[in-house]
Amino acid sequence: MDTPDSLAKHVERGILVQMLQTLVRIPSVTGTEDAAQEQMARFLRELGGEVDAWRPDVAALRREPNFPTGKVLDSRLNVAATFRGHGGGPTLVLNGHMDTVTPGDERRWSHPPFAAEVVDGRLYGRGACDMKGGLVAILGAVRAIREAGLRLRGSVCIQSVIGEEDSGLGAFAALHRGHRGDAVIVCEPTRLAVAPAQAGMTVFRITVEGRAAHASVRGEGISAFERFRPIYDALVAVEARRNRELRHPLFEGQALPWALNVGMVQAGSWPSIVPEGLTAEGRLGVAIGESIADARRQLEEAVWTAAQADPWLATHPPAVEWIGLVCQPAETTPEHPLVRTLVAAVERVTGRPAALTGVPYGSDLRLFTNDFGIPGALFGPGDIRVAHFTDEFVPLAELEAAALALAQTIVQFCGVA
């Protein structure tokens, strides 16, 4: 039987690439994950896992507190697998989501989004980074432990979940089905940084009223677009203030850890009509330790203050609504044994100090830490900056390093029988 230190020879890049190419070549945009999940279940069975593949009862889950409402709530295939230990050790959950965002206009891709091409040490494709690369790193870690002949005292629970991109439905369903543990690693792309904290977010809609007029006499109308300008300026100002005042040690050096983004603006109905209405939708980042309600109040106050300074808006106040996904911020102490074990493993594998940080985006981690009291961290190959972009990719060196670091973490955390 090999020792934990010899796991590296069982992390084989060629096998990792083959598994990742297989998954990337199966499109799995949110709502269409079934075929890719069936393949993931096959991979897990081949590794000796006790596979549970089921279609969550969404109607029943809706009745649970903190149900993560999303846009796509059809029941699709959720997958979890248990690799049972030999007793006396903790259970570690390794989580990844199978769904991806749309590839968009495929003509803009230099490498076709579902071809899984390998060029210059990178594997390209939709989901390669976010986050099929993380799922394959998990598979590679478990495979390495099996090939090394190591018998774990604790158990490993692998979750391959649906619906993360718009809600968290799959992780929520897996946790409620009983697929839990003593700690969790969510293998989102972190460039091999260890991130025990994530920002939260909440989605807003602002509606501005104007007054229509013919464009040739536009001065007799009130343009909702122009009336939105001071409101937008107020949003920019409140973002700057929040990021200046709300500090956290794991987010130091980040320009906008609690980013506010206006992502959609719709105004008017005809080019020659002064727009009588405008709707803007966006996301507001929520700081660690801050409540969703407090963050929302600050945005609402900024909009109200801007409206009071404008004669039209003061008598026709903009409406602020809170819609869609709500993602609570989440944090695990960096001193938690799992975090320390993962940091040590990354440093052994990479030969340099591990980055310990927070991430400015939401993830399924908050469901584990906030709803079920399961501490954990984000860790995985790839850079969030190329996720959701054309020519998304994951570096193969990071994929290999992540698999080895995960294998070593599993062995150290769960213990060897």
What is the topology?
Layout: H1 13-24, H2 34-46, E1 50-54, H3 58-62, E2 78-83, E3 92-97, E4 118-119, E5 122-124, H4 128-147, E6 156-161, H5 169-176, E7 183-186, E8 194-198, E9 200-209, H6 224-245, E10 260-267, E11 277-286, H7 292-308, H8 311-315, E12 319-327, E13 330-331, H9 337-350, E14 356-359, H10 365-371, E15 376-378, E16 393-395, H11 396-414
Parallel strand pairs: 3-6, 3-7, 7-15, 8-14
Antiparallel strand pairs: 1-2, 2-6, 4-5, 5-16, 8-13, 9-11, 9-12, 10-11
Average pLDDT number: 96
Annotation field: number of helices: 11
Q: What is the radius of gyration?
A: 23 Å
| Termini Cα gap | 12 Å
Tell me the β content: 15-25%
Structure commentary:
The structure is a single chain. This protein has eleven helices and 16 strands. It is α/β, with parallel strands linked by helices and 417 residues long. The chain has a six-stranded mixed beta sheet with strand order 1-2-6-3-7-15, sandwiched between helices. Strand 4 and strand 5 form a beta hairpin. Helix 1 packs across helix 4 (128-147), helix 4 packs across helix 11 (396-414) and helix 6 (224-245) packs across helix 7. It is elongated, with a radius of gyration of 23 Å.
Brief account:
The protein is 34% helix and 21% strand.
What descriptive keywords fit this protein?
six-stranded mixed beta sheet, alpha/beta, four-stranded antiparallel beta sheet, 417 residues, 16 strands, 34% helix, single chain
